[in-house]
Each structure stands twice: as C-alpha cells, then as structure tokens.
C-alpha cells in the first residue's frame, strides 16, 4: 500500500519529505511532482528499484531514463559536458528540459542507453522536488509517469495513488503539475560540431536554447 504525503507546494513539510527519502533508501519507487508532470523516481544505485520502475512503465533498457539533479555542478558529475553544451545547459536550467548527454563512469551502465552510453539529465524547477533532492543528497533516477497503454503523463496524485498503490511505495501530493512533458534535446551532436537534435518539443520553449 503506497504511503500518501500531502505537502505544501511551496514550503513542503520536511518531516514528510524525510519519510519519502526513507522509502527511496529502502528500495522503493515513489511518484513525485515536477515542473512538467508527475514522475516515478528511485535510487540511482538500486538495481532492483530501477528494474521495478521499468516494469511499472513497461519500457525496456533502450528507453532513456533521466537523472534529476539539484544543479549544474551535480549534473557535470554524471555527464561529459563541453563548453558549447554547458552554455545551453546554463541557459535552460532549472526548467522543464531533459538533455541527452554522454554518461560518465559515475552512471551505472545498466541505467544508460545500452548502445549509445548516454543518459537523460535535467535540473527541475519545483520547490517540492528540489527539497526532496536536497534531503536525499544525490540525483534521483526518474521516468515520466505515463500509465501503460496511454500517451499522456499523469497529473493527479490521488489518481496515481489509486492506480499504482500496490506497485509503488509512496506518492508525494503537492497539487497538480503543469500537464505537459519536458522538452527533450540531444546535445551529443555538439561534440562533433553538429547542431543539437530536438527529440521532443514539450513545455520548455526552444527559443531559450536558440533553436
């Protein structure tokens, strides 16, 4: 049975977030609000939790999972970033963007793309998620919460609880999110002198990136 944490959207109660962090540390998958839609998150280094998250979403290892980071300095520990890539990252973070970058050795191979050795990374702009990441003290592995067989991300915490309460450890309810997925941009071509590739145009405006 999933635990349900109702928190203030701007000033979340620390004691409730600490309970949510405890769930993550014991290997649970939980649902959290972001600046785009709700997402499933788990501990980066917990293989069983990662496998469980993929099963819930019904995606394979070629589906890019995303690392949620507190800031750019944390992001640079997990991705190889050159000057051109960094300028774009700085212009768009924090915000509703996911960037595909070459993973460093800090990223377990099982969570990066099996052929390309890339990972999705983002710095979300959401007070509750920011506070959760700070308490956790490290990035969280995430995937947009899209129910199997559907195409739109879920946005209602109560509905998430009812649908997934036997599959996940908890739900953090901070009210409705902006019901639109992130803009996804592949920055790896920049390393070869090519232009970034827009994988998905979502909530983050491309103009911020000059695209």
Description of the molecule:
The chain is of the alpha/beta class and 211 residues long. The protein has one domain: DHBP synthase. Helices cover 26% and strands 22% of the residues. The chain is built from six helices and eleven strands. Strands 1, 2, 3, 4, 5, 6, 7, 8, 9, 10 and 11 form an eleven-stranded mixed β-sheet that branches. A hairpin with a 6-residue loop joins β2 and β3. It is globular, with a radius of gyration of 16 Å. The N and C termini lie far apart (44 Å).
Summarize the structure.
With 211 residues, this protein is of the alpha/beta class. It is 26% helix and 22% strand.
Order of helices and strands: EHEEHEHEHEEHEHEEE
The CATH topology name reads DHBP synthase
Q: How many DSSP E strands? A: 11
Work out the helix count: 6
Unreliable parts: none
Helical/strand content category: alpha/beta
CA-based shape: globular
* Residue share in helix: 25-40%
The CATH homologous superfamily is named DHBP synthase
Bin the strand percentage: 15-25%
How many structural units, i.e. domains? 1
Main sheet characteristics:
11 strands, mixed
Q: End-to-end span in angstroms?
A: 44 Å
Question: What integer is the average pLDDT?
Answer: 91
CATH architecture name: Alpha-Beta Complex
Q: CATH first level: which class?
A: Alpha Beta
Using the CA coordinates, give the radius of gyration: 16 Å
